[in-house]
Amino acid sequence: MDSFWKSDQNIDTYLLRLRNCIEAISPTSEEDWQAFSRSLEFKKFKKWELLVEVGKVENYMYFLVKGAVMLVYPRNGMDYVIRFNFPGSFFNSYHSFITREPSQLKVEAVNNVSVFRICRTDIENFYKRSAEARMVGQKILEVYHFQKEQREIAFLTKSAEENYLELIQNDPDLQNYIPLKYTASYLGVAPESLSRIRKKLATRSRVRLSI
Predict the structure, then answer these.
(1) Domain 3-157 carries which CATH code?
(2) How far is CA 110 from the centre of its chain?
(3) Tell me: the pLDDT tens digits for 147-165?
(4) Average pLDDT over the chain, rounded to whole?
């Protein structure tokens, strides 16, 4: 069996990371955490495997613990990258999740990925049982929308180079596993422009090292 699919020895560490992430947003009781964690499903996806497909209704909320995913809007034969997600973040096709309409987005693993996910029904039942859980859910949505707004402002006010530098702060090695065209799509520039940005940054780095 491929070692990627074997039982992951880090699940307890991943659970702690998820709990710490939730606690940083809004404190939770031990009782609520235990009830919530029992509803979680641990899943692995291989590189380029789809977590969410276009045309299907989104039924899960995901928390990424390993690897990276991209949210993509396919149109006229082109893939437009809306967002990359890295470990420690929540994601899904949110519009489909809320409206119960087929997703217009796909979510794709850009390398081997490990996630926790919880189904919509379990979330709704959890909210019904606990006002504290509803508060946590609301806080998570507030963080999501704040980050979305900050990202939109950055793309309006910062250069492609500045936005690229912020992106690689999440994972300096991403250029080794995410094809140039997808990163360029996310930044809203042509692949040739991103190549020039990378060369410029590499030259600048070499100059600093030589000083």
Answers:
(1) 2.60.120.10
(2) 11
(3) 889 889 998 999 999 999 9
(4) 89
Q: What is the pTM of this model?
A: 0.87
Give the Cα separation of 202 and 190 in Å (integer): 19
Residue type, 7: S
For the chain, domain boundaries: 3-157, 159-211
Give residue 51's identity as a one-letter amino acid code. L
